[in-house]
Amino acid sequence: MQSLMEEFEVVAHGIFPEDSIRVDYKPGVRIRWEYATQAFIDDAWKNYVQASRETGVTVYNGNILRLDGVERANGYLSLVLSDTDFRSAIGTGTSDFITAFPGAPQANPFSLSVALVTADGRIVIEKRNRIDARRRKYHVIAGFMERELDALNGRPNPFDALRREVCEELALSIEDPLYAMGLVRTVYGSELCFYNRLSISFSDLLEIKEKGETDCEIDTLEGVEDSPSAVASFIAGHMGDFVPSGRACLLLYGREAYGAKWYEDTMKSSPV
Fold first, then answer.
1. Count: domains in the chain
2. Of 127, 83, 141, nearest to 222 (Cα)?
3. Tell me: the pLDDT tens digits for 185-195?
């Protein structure tokens, strides 16, 4: 058996309420790649746009944030953010880029995901039918921090950004308490994982999404039973079509909900 760590690395884990996450944002600071590197990024972007069109997926070069650094000390998780864009994230977020330009910096876009648990014990999973080489079918609710929406005042707040993302995708205002539970790193970027317990049932959530105004990115929602066996089975059964950082989010939730032994056993027993 191979380890899930081949697709993601858990950089930090624990329970982090909103006042324990510190963000240092450096607007206007961004990576400037050399000519050959930028040409590689441009070609990768053109190929990605073409492949997305062929599968019916619309993409655009959004202005997002880069994770420059992270430190955990004295109960705080400190994040350093700067600027990047989706084009650069696509161009540098592959093993091909790393092989072609060893030692060159990646865009490392900063995104957020959340394990939402309904009142009747279902963990919310999003399912998309329109996928391409970079997208996979399953994920938890997730999205990038966007500069125009989340950094206008120069003080981006991951908690507020996640609340915005949940509202956009589900037409739902999530309730406090909302906790971050870990930071994961993948080849395509870094993701801060959260969890939140809703006061509504899964069927109520479906009704809210159906009647509300959403960004229409999600095709359907599925609810995984909030139990050690069900979550472990879902992870093991969807290794090929579940976004790696989404699996990490479920694993980190399981670590807190079911214990460290469940987490370690599931990490070891899930094939890549």
1. 1
2. 127
3. 999 999 999 99
